[in-house]
Amino acid sequence: MCGIIGYIGYQEAYPILIKGLHRLEYRGYDSAGIALINRENNLSIYKAKGRVADLEEFSLGKDISGTVGIAHTRWATHGEPNHINAHPHYSQSENLALIHNGIIENYAVLKESLSRKGYVFQSDTDTEVLVQLIEYIKTGNNTDISTAVQLALKQVIGAYAIAVIEKENPDLIIAARKSSPLVVGIGKNEFFLASDATPIIEYTNQVIYLNDEEIAVIHRNEPLRIVNLSNVEKTPQITRLEMSLNELEKGGYPHFMLKEIFEQPRTLRDCMSGRVNTGNRNIVLSGIVDHREKFINCRRIIILACGTSWHAGLIGEYLFEEFCRIPVEVEYSSEFRYRHPVIHRDDIVIAVSQSGETADTLAAIELAKEAGAFVYGICNVVGSSIPRNTDSGSYTHVGPEIGVASTKAFTAQVAVLVMMALSIAREKKTIPEKRFLAVLSELSRIPGKIETILQQNGYIEDLSKIFTYAHNFIYLGRGYGYPVAIEGALKLKEISYIHAEGYPAAEMKHGPIALIDNEMPVVVIATDSTTYDKMISNIQEIKARKGRILAIVNKSDCKVREMADYTIEIPDTEECLSPLLSIVPLQLLSYHIAVRKGRDVDMPRNLAKSVTVE
Ligand code: G6P
Based on CB atoms within 10 Å of each CB, which residue in 34, 276, 341, 600 is the most buried? Predict the structure, then answer.
């Protein structure tokens, strides 16, 4: 949450920073701000409540010159999302400006102590405390800015990615991280820094991912220096970015979300490429091959995730139990980390995360590692914190997902879990060879089947008109359809702000059935499954209460389509792969409802793509 960016070099910083902020806006969009040092060494800060576009408007006619600057787009934690709480924050003397992504947990104690020393605070933020602390240390110890940052960070408890500039030192940016991401881009006579690589890629593909408690001393015209909090010099590890600029554009679609929904046939092919091999009838996931014995002998699998990734994890539970006969627990990372979980050394923990930066999942991983479990990551963002903090893992390879509502990352997470379950099951001999081959070959057909679902986009758009003014929705599913139901409900509520509940269909009788009347749309995942007939009984129960039924059915279905008010057809497939198909029309349905309601689909209110705070 919050995006930070910095530039130092020979070009004008403002356009680079603004463009970068647009790329990072998915991380938070409550306010935006920029700090620049111009040729006369004036340090100016401009900030605005709202979007980056509001900041651009505010900056019109102001002096935006300068070849060094830092900028921030905010997802509010401490202090309401207004102009004063927007970053960057000045120190008391206005000699320093600082941006921050994270939370300073002991900010209250630090603030009180600084207040007693005469420091006056303008904002309600924890960030302002940090910039004042740095200034206090710098002036009190008569030290340079880099040392002052080191000393200040030693006093800080919490998470941070920060960048600081100093009026009297226009050739320098100091940046540091702990538990919040920070990437430094190395250009020719210029440096970039950002929360992720997306603002950097068009200038350079040479980057350094900072590690926790590392400080980057970024001096114009000098090689980059990295030190830790104790001033021990580190050797910068340069990584080459594989991302392409096209992946960051909407490519003719009105929203990133729609583009990402439509990308799924390709992203799933990319995800399976080199892994699913129908020719030699094999699945090769190097993370599994390298740790074969661990997976074969593990006592239990614990899946840790948040949000949509947690829904993918639930599907993983069904897959591992069905195919591998390994007991599985799926946990919200935020609950797991605080409830004294029992973790065994022969447990395998699988952390699922699109961003690879979710704070609760990172903390839960640490707990699992301390208890001696083997930790496997399923992540999308290459080089992010989770892949760097796990023992092994698989990337989903779907490219940048920018729409805040996760779509292509979800289907790829499920595909990785399918590949894992199948390959472990084969190693454990818990799956008959014939079945393995049947699922394997069907898996390779999934991208093509998604293409046929996407052809119904116009029809689903028409259907969305019927439901745009509903105030509540219920989504029901059973078995593999249950995680799809809760993911479908989440998609609808996060982007359209319509209340939606996802429920296991049979559990409906224990409460939600009371909500059903002739105004309530009920979306049922009624595809072919072992519980298909039971689902029909549940549909009868809804019909008896006059609920309006929209059913996701298979092409070959004849019973449910007779009963439902509306249906969306998906191709027939293996039950265990059905989530990869049935979620797609639900993604489209939420998208079109949200568009019809005039919502900001890619940046829904109050949400952020990457939740790097607890
Ligand atoms: C946020 C995002 C969701 C995402 C969740 C977990 O809430 O808006 O789309 O599913 O975080 O994020 P992760 O990056 O760990 O998958």
Answer: 34
Please give the pLDDT value at position 45.
97
> Nearest Cα to 540, choosing from 560, 510, 523?
560
From 271, 270, 253, select the one nearest 262 (Cα to Cα).
253
Q: How far apart are CA 474 and CA 509, in angstroms?
A: 13
Q: Verify whether residue 2 is a known catalytic residue.
A: yes
Same domain, 16 and 120: yes
| pLDDT tens digits along 210-246 | 999 999 999 998 999 999 999 999 999 999 988 888 8
Out of 2, 298, 324, 576, pick the active-site residue: 2
For residues 195, 197, 202, 208, the Cα torsion angle rounded to the nearest 10 degrees is 100
Looking at the structure, tell me whether residues 392 and 478 fall in a common domain.
Answer: no
Cβ neighbors of 506 (< 8 A, separation 6 or more) are: 478, 534, 538
CB atoms within 10 A of CB 163: 30
Mutate to test the pocket of ligand 1, among 610, 613, 614 (most ligand atoms within 8 A of CB): 610
pTM above the 0.85 mark? yes
Q: Which residue stretches of the chain have pLDDT < 70?
A: none
Shared domain for 208 and 344, answered yes or no, is no
Q: Give domain status of residue 253, yes or no.
A: no
Q: How far is the CA of 612 from the centre of ligand 1 (A)?
A: 10
| Structural domains of the chain, count | 3
Same domain, residue pair 425 and 474? no
Residue 612 falls inside a structural domain: no
d(CA 392, CA 375): 7
Tell me which residue has its CA closest to atom 3 in ligand 1: 307
Instruction: Out of 178, 259, 449, 609, pick the active-site residue.
Output: 609
Question: Buried b / exposed e across 560-579, counting CB within 10 Å, b at 16+?
Answer: beebbeebbbbbebbbbbbb
**Which residue matches tokens 């072919």?**
528
Q: Are residues 437 and 531 in the same domain?
A: no
pLDDT score at 58: 96
Residue 576 designated active-site: no
CB-hemisphere CA count at 13 Å for 7?
A: 28
Q: What is the pLDDT of residue 554?
A: 96
Q: Which amino acid, one-letter code, is at 505?
A: A
Q: Which of 195, 245, 212 lies closest to 75 in space, CA to CA?
A: 195
Q: What is the CATH number of the domain that holds 167?
A: 3.60.20.10
Note the Cα 266 to chain centre separation in Å. Answer: 20
